[in-house]
């Protein structure tokens, strides 16, 4: 069931001025992602809303241009999953947090 809040989260993700916030997570390696992956773009793949909570599955597409998790730059374009949780109150995003899924990222940059 949709309550309209999913469109607020989608607009937030699509707004390029919010990209620096999408790059931040509580994960210790988040700053390394910013340094190692350039030309980052975020797109919404799936979004679910219930009450004031909105969960989005977001794809980050980027170029592997720096060292990450012991892997030298490959120059490959990668697609990594990020999950974002938003709390929307009266149409405004009150807070949000995110998690990168490294299981979708690491196989793309490791030596074959």
Structure description:
The chain has 112 residues and is an alpha+beta fold. It contains 4 helices and 4 strands; from the N terminus they run H-H-H-E-E-E-E-H. It has helices spanning 5-14, 19-22, 30-36, 102-109; strands spanning 37-50, 53-64, 77-89, 92-101. Strands 1-2-3-4 form a 4-stranded antiparallel beta sheet. It is elongated and about 45 Å long.
pLDDT averaged residue by residue = 89
Number of separate strands: 4
Summarize the biggest pleated sheet: 4 strands, antiparallel
Low-confidence stretches: none
Estimated structural class: alpha+beta
Computed Rg? 15 Å
Approximately what portion of the residues adopt beta-strand conformation? 35-45%
SS field, number of helical segments? 4
Q: For the terminal residues, how far apart are their CA atoms?
A: 43 Å
- What is the spatial order of strands in the main beta sheet? 1-2-3-4
Helix fraction? 25-40%
Q: Any idea what the shape is?
A: elongated
The run of helices and strands is HHHEEEEH
Quickly list its features:
4 strands; alpha+beta; four-stranded antiparallel β-sheet; 44% strand; elongated; 112 residues; single chain
Structure in a nutshell:
The protein has 112 residues and is an alpha+beta fold. The protein has helices at 5-14, 19-22, 30-36, 102-109; strands at residues 37-50, 53-64, 77-89, 92-101.
């Amino acid at each position: 069931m949709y309550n309209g809040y999913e469109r607020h989260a989608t607009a937030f993700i699509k707004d390029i001025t919010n990209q620096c916030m999408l790059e931040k997570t509580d994960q210790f390696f988040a700053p390394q992602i910013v340094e190692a992956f350039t030309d980052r773009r975020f797109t919404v793949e799936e979004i679910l809303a219930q009450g004031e909570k909105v969960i989005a599955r977001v794809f980050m597409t980027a170029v592997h241009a720096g060292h990450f998790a012991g892997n030298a730059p490959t120059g490959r374009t990668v697609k990594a999953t990020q999950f974002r949780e938003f709390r929307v109150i009266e149409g405004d995003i009150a807070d949000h947090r995110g998690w990168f899924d490294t299981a979708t990222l690491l196989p793309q940059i490791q030596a074959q």
